[in-house]
Amino acid sequence: METNVTPATEAENGPASRALERVAEALIFAADEPVTARRIADVFGEVSGEPPPSEAVVEDAVARLNAAYEAAERAFRIHAWGGGFRMATVPSVAPYVNALFHEARRRKLSRSLMETLAVIAYRQPATKPEVDHVRGVASDYALRRLLELGLIDVIGRSDSVGRPLLYGTTRRFLEQFGLHTLGDLPNLREVEELLNDPAFNRERARLLMEKGLTSGGAPGATADSPAEASDD
Fold first, then answer.
1. pLDDT at 106
2. Cβ proximity of 165 and 157 under 8 Å
3. Which pTM value belongs to this model?
4. What's CA 145's distance to the chain center, in Å?
5. Any idea where the domains of the chain sit in the sequence?
6. Is 26 helix (H, G, I), strand (E, B) or coil?
7. For domain 7-100, is the CATH number 1.10.1740.10?
8. CA atoms within 13 A on the CB side of 145
9. pLDDT confidence of 190, banded at 50, 70, 90?
10. DSSP track, 114-182
11. Would the pLDDT of 66 be above 60?
12. Which of 78, 56, 73, 165 has the alpha carbon at shortest distance from 120?
């Protein structure tokens, strides 16, 4: 008896679909930063001469690639990361990767940089006076260093007296911390548990809450390794 193949199945398994999977895999593998579904679609259309596929079609192709990786027990997957797609190894092989790069591993951010970055990440846009108030110390060096590392940027000026600069996190921040969007930030309770440090006390928690940190994560927010960066 003849088997009827639906148009959806034909599209999913046809030559064009397999070509899109290969292109998406190649672009994500070769890129130094996350590649968006829109960019993959545009490159595919530009080179092939065919109409660019929709972002949903690209996302379906990525999902099929991940299913194939999982079925073959490959050591990597494609993750939604920093606003696009990026390849990363699975957690089970992390000890081996860490051992390979142990000697060349960069130092983690210092506590002062992490504190400053946390305030900006959750409060953004935030001014220096706001950061200083929450931390209880001047943040001049921390802000300058985070700007040099590309983890924060100046995004405007406040309407308050003196019109201080407003700081916000960058796409590099999302990439370094393995986040897709700001909505993936841990909530305040999770931050306290992660820090597990007496210095992060109830008073600082209260100040953070007053400044806009809620248990639901980052206000106005629209995938797994710990972030590391040089801190001289």
1. 52
2. yes
3. 0.48
4. 20
5. 7-100, 111-210
6. helix
7. no
8. 17
9. low
10. HHHHHHHHHH-SEEHHHHHHHHTS--HHHHHHHHHTTSEEEEEE-SSTT-PEEEEE-HHHHHHTT-SSG
11. yes
12. 165
pLDDT per residue as tens digits for the range 111-162:
889 889 989 999 889 999 999 999 999 899 999 999 998 999 999 998 888 8
Contact 62, 24 (CB under 8 A): yes
Element (H, E) at 203: helix 202-210
How many Å is the Cα radius of gyration of the chain? 22
Per-residue exposure over 30-60, b if at least 16 CB sit within 10 Å of its own CB, e if not: eeeebbebebbbebbeeeeeeebbeeebbbb
Residue 84 and residue 34 in contact, taking contact as beta carbons nearer than 8 Å: yes
* Mean pLDDT (whole number) for 28-37: 92
Tokens of 100: 């390979």
Q: Contact, 81 vs 34, CB < 8 A?
A: yes
The CATH fold of domain 111-210: Arc Repressor Mutant, subunit A (1.10.10)
Output the six-digit token pair for 95.
């000890």
The span from the CA of 116 to the CA of 6, in Å, is 55
Mean pLDDT of all residues in the chain? 79
Q: Are 159 and 165 in contact (CB under 8 A)?
A: no
Q: Return the exposure string of 83-121: e unless at least 16 CB atoms fall within 10 Å of the residue's CB, then b.
A: bbbbbbeeeeeeeeeeeeeeeeeeeebeeebbbbbbbbb
Task: Give the chain's length.
Answer: 232
